[in-house]
Amino acid sequence: MLRINARTCDCGERLELEGRLTTPDVPELQKAVIEAFHRSPRVALDLSDLTFLDTDGARLLRELRRQDVSIYGCSAFVTELLGLSASGQREPGGGPCWS
Fold this sequence. Notes:
Layout: E1 2-9, E2 12-21, H1 26-39, E3 43-53, H2 55-66, E4 70-72, H3 76-82
Parallel strand pairs: 2-3, 3-4
Antiparallel strand pairs: 1-2
């Protein structure tokens, strides 16, 4: 089960993902990202509390990265799976404004 918590900060919209991102959750996350982009041109995903993702979940996260959605707070496994930097983070605008 996936839980999505939307937060607004000075830098834009942040979606905090908790739990498991699996095939049935993909449409829900897609909808949440679209809604976040309606509120701000900058959107980030915080994966600190993501415990699992399947193939479709990983595919969606890679697609969102290509659409300039920032991703951070990844576990080592998710970092490797998504091809993120060694620190496991891709911070919005290159700065640590998402807190």
